[in-house]
Amino acid sequence: MSSWLVSVPVWGASYVGTFVRAAAPALLAAVRALGEPVKFIINTDAPAEILAALPGQDVEVRPVPRKPTYVALQEGHADAVRSAAPGDRGVLLNADLVVSGNLLKRCAEHFAVGRSAVVLLGIRTVDDPAARPPPG
Predict the structure, then answer these.
(1) Which residues are 93's β-sheet partners?
(2) CA angle in degrees (0–180, nearest 5) for 3-16-100
(3) Which of 6, 74, 99, 133 is most solvent-facing, going by the fewest CB within 10 Å?
(4) What is the chain's alpha carbon radius of gyration, rounded to the nearest angstrom?
(5) Structural contact between residues 9 and 42, judged by C-beta atoms closer than 8 angstroms
(6) Which pLDDT does position 135 carry in this prediction?
(7) Rounded to an integer, what distance in angstroms lies between the CA atom of residue 120 and that of residue 51?
(8) What pLDDT, on a 0 to 100 scale, did the predictor assign at position 115?
(9) Burial 20-30 (b: 16+ CB within 10 A, else e)
(10) Rounded Cα–Cα distance for residues 101 and 82 (Å)
(11) What angle do CA 46, 97, 115 make, to 5 degrees?
């Protein structure tokens, strides 16, 4: 059985805050709905905050590549992809995305019928407690 590998580069106070408050709770809901083990690879400058936001999860924190912003984002994801074993299911996310609670489960359904890739577009988070959707 293949493993799930979720890459989320998260650095800078604003993105760390958004990830902790909005994105991580939604990711945890999606992991619970999937019901399978998931490994997170997080390139970050705030490992303690990231580990606290993903309690009980298999999380590997790595340093942020010392490159311009979008190059660092790309290299963080590329580093995670290189860490994957053949057949692993890779999920590449931004720190400010709030995923649907069924994201991973729906991806698994696509893989189960023979798809080798699932590409989804997501909107970015509005970090306003009054407008924030509930996790899941």
Answers:
(1) none
(2) 50
(3) 133
(4) 14
(5) yes
(6) 62
(7) 26
(8) 86
(9) bebbbbbbbbb
(10) 27
(11) 115
Farthest-apart Cα atoms in the chain, separation: 42
> Cβ of 105: how many Cβ atoms within 10 Å?
16
Q: What is the mean pLDDT of residues 39-43?
A: 96
For residues 38-63, one letter each, b for 16 or more C-beta atoms within 10 angstroms of the residue's C-beta and e for the rest, the string is bbbbbbbebeebbeebbeebebebbe
What is the residue type of 86?
P
pLDDT of residue 1: 47
| Secondary structure (DSSP) of the chain | -PPEEEE--B-SHHHHHHIIIIIHHHHHHHHHHHTS-EEEEEEBS-HHHHHHHSTTSEEEEEPPPSS-HHHHHHHHHHHHHHHPPTT-EEEE--TTB---TTHHHHHHHHHHTT-S------PBP---TTTPPPP-
Q: How far apart are CA 113 and CA 130, in angstroms?
A: 39
pLDDT band at 127 (very low <50, low <70, confident <90, very high): low
